[in-house]
Amino acid sequence: MKKLEEYVMSIPDFPEEGIIFRDVTSVLQDADGLRLAVDTMQEKVEDLEYDVVVGPESRGFIFGTPIAYNNKKPFVLIRKAGKLPRETVSMSYDLEYGQATIEMHKDSIKPGQRVLIVDDLIATGGTTEAMIKLIESLGGVVVGIVVLIELAGLNGRAKLGNYRLESAICYPGK
Fold first, then answer.
1. Is 94:32 a contact under the CB 8 Å cutoff?
2. Which is catalytic among the residues 22, 59, 79, 157?
3. Residue 89, strand partner residues
4. What 8-state DSSP symbol labels residue 8?
5. Secondary structure letter of residue 158 according to DSSP
6. Is 59 a catalytic residue?
7. Fewest C-beta in 10 Å: which of 9, 35, 79, 85?
8. Could you give the maximum distance between any two Cα atoms of the chain, in Å?
């Protein structure tokens, strides 16, 4: 069987010169790759006790939903602003060239619930940091974060302080 890293395509000079883009769609397009990705991520946090899985739009949905399903936990969506139909709470954060806002339903996390965040990638950590703040604003307790890919050279882990972060694949560069 192939290693998980072998399913990830690395695209040089995308989206700009000097960047190596780690393409997770190549993992999703292979049944063995997808199964290995979900199983590996799930194994990284099998010792955690959590009540709910949270994932951001859109690839957090892809990896978080099967982990929630396999562990008989509910799954909560975090979406871009304006995409959810009921009352929401929001968090804005800085991007490299601007700002973004994420939202979740106000009733999606109950005070004291233990939350596992699942996403495809952590780079600079801005989105993950915003998700943590959003969850905590509802009284949730983030007990862990698991991602398929960590781009360690962008220091996203440093923004997370003492939060537990597990990655299935860790690339040292950008």
1. no
2. 59
3. 104
4. S
5. G
6. yes
7. 85
8. 46
Instruction: Name the band, by pLDDT with cuts 50, 70 and 90, for residue 174.
Output: low
For residue 155, count other CB atoms closer than 10 A to its CB: 12
**Residue closest to 142 by CA, chosen among 164, 104, 115, 160:** 115
Query: With contact defined as beta carbons under 8 Å apart, do 26 and 169 qualify?
Result: no
Q: What is the pLDDT of residues 136-165, one digit of tens each?
A: 999 999 999 999 999 999 999 999 999 999
Q: With 0.85 as the threshold, say if the pTM is over it.
A: yes
Contacts (Cβ under 8 Å, ≥6 apart) of 45? 116, 144, 146, 166
- In the structure encoding, which two tokens stand for residue 76, read together? 């909560």
Give the count of beta carbons closer than 10 Å to the beta carbon of residue 135.
24
pLDDT at 52: 98
Of the candidates 17, 46, 87, 96, the residue annotated as catalytic is 96
pLDDT of residue 173: 72
Phi, psi of 155 (to 5 degrees): 60, 30
Q: Which of 81, 152, 157 is nearest to 126 (CA)?
A: 157
